[in-house]
Fold:
Amino acid sequence: MSLFARDVHVVVLSSGSAGNCTYVGDGRAGVVIDCGISTKQVFARLSEAGLPDAPVDAVLVTHEHSDHVSAAAILARNMAKHRKPIPFFMTAGTARHIDQRCVPDGIELVEAGSEVSVKHLRAECFPVPHDTDDPVAWRVHLGGLVIGVVTDLGKPTNLVIDKLRSCDFAVVEFNHDEDMLMDGPYPYWLKQRIKSQKGHLSNRQAQSLLADALNPRLKTIVLGHLSEENNHPALAERAARDVFRQHGVDGEVGMFIGHQRQALAPFKLRAENW
Ligand SMILES: [Zn+2]
Ligand SMILES: [Zn+2]
Structure:
């Protein structure tokens, strides 16, 4: 087995309202969680990350908002033509509401709370409170590691806390600063939507989620889905840092901020058991 195959790579290709896409793979199996950036960008950013041949064996879809599925139809066609057809796992609610132009070939329905296998990789989805039909978040199990992506939720739930607690690596939503949102340019209805229990996590809510989810296993956090209008990276970073300080783990947990215009440098995680 090659050295490459022993590492699990996570690449946050894009995170934010302009598009969400995270790659998880080990050289032999790989998935993307959501495909809200163009197919061209998916592969260009993987190449820039040094993973031009990274296998993409499936897409794990969280919900039908366009920043999560805009490339689905084209990605499905592109994979079928140039590599191989791949499944797009999503709930029935997502499949019912996905914009007609984005519907991919290869939809495979999953129930929130269920698990799918992609080669030797396992992925499980669980419900999150968001204003779509049957939205989920995903955790990927690979090489003894658990990688979670939890964005687009209006409030932390016990289930989400529980799922994050046993992650080694997590992308967690830090969407907005509450004052910036309320004082900002968005129309009243949109502010209410974002603030609602089925909207997006504020920095303060994310702090509480992080505080409840912290555990020695969780080594790396990416602050994700930051609003460009209603948040500032420094505010999100300070919010997370405060939690680490309060819990005496500042410096022990790696913290990064996801972008929507470029990929984060790839994370290379050492698999635990092969
Ligand atoms: Zn989103
Ligand atoms: Zn959404």
